[in-house]
Amino acid sequence: MAGLISDYQGEILIDGQKPGLHTKSIVSFLPEKTYLSSWMNPADTFDFFSDFYADFDRAKAEDMLQRFHLDLHQPIRTLSKGMQEKLQLALVMSRQAPVYLLDEPMGGVDPASRSAILDLVLKNYQENAVMLLATHLIQDVERIFDRAIIMGFNELIMDEEADVIRQRYGKSIDEVFREVFKCSVNL
Questions:
Q1: What is the pTM of this model?
Q2: How far apart are CA 14 and CA 22, in angstroms?
C-alpha cells in the first residue's frame, strides 16, 4: 500500500489506483525503521515534508514536537531511537491524508510513552480517514480497534470486527493473538 514493493500477488487499489505517485500523495506512511537523514534536524524534516506533501500542516507538526519535548534544531543523529520514532510520528500525523499506514508506531518507545503516543495518534488523524496500524503490541492499542486482522504463517488468520472477536472467544484481542502465536517450549 505504501508503494515500496512490487513483487506481490493480488491487487490493491487506493482511490481506485494501483500504488504509485498519486497514492503516495494521499497515503501517510510511517515505516518501522527510520528513513530520516542523520544530518537533518526536525526543522529540516518539516521543510522536506512541506516540499513533498501539499497536505502537510507544519504548525501541527511543531505542536506535536513540543508535546514530545523535542528540540526543533537538535540533529537527528543525537536523538535516541524513541525520539526519532516520535519525530517520524509527528511528521506522518501532521498530514491531512485520507489513508494512514503505521508500521509499529510504538516500536522502540518506552512503555510510559506508548499511551501518550496513542492518544496523540487518535487526536491527530483525519476522522474520515482510514488507519491501518501494524503492531505486535496489541494490548497497548486494542482499545482503538474497530477491526482486527491477524496475519501469520503466510496466511490471513482472522479478519473481523473487534467486538465480534471479543464476543466469540470471550477474550481480549491480545489474548486471542497470544493464543494463535504461542510457542511450545520444552524446558
A1: 0.85
A2: 9
Q: What is the mean pLDDT of residues 158-169?
A: 94
Q: Which three cell numbers stand for residue 25?
A: 500523495
| pLDDT (tens digit per residue) in 46-62 | 999 999 999 999 999 99
| Sign of CA pseudo-dihedral 144, 31, 100, 90 | positive
Q: What count of other Cβ atoms lies within 10 Å of the Cβ of residue 96? A: 15
CB 23 within 8 A of CB 11: no
Nearest Cα neighbor of 113 from 78, 61, 69, 173 is 69
Residue 119 Ramachandran class (φ > 0 left, ψ -120 to 50 alpha, else beta): alpha
Residue length of the chain: 187
- Any bridge partners for residue 29, and if so which? 101
DSSP for residue 36 = S
Q: Which amino acid is at 169?
A: Y
Q: What is the CA radius of gyration of the chain?
A: 18
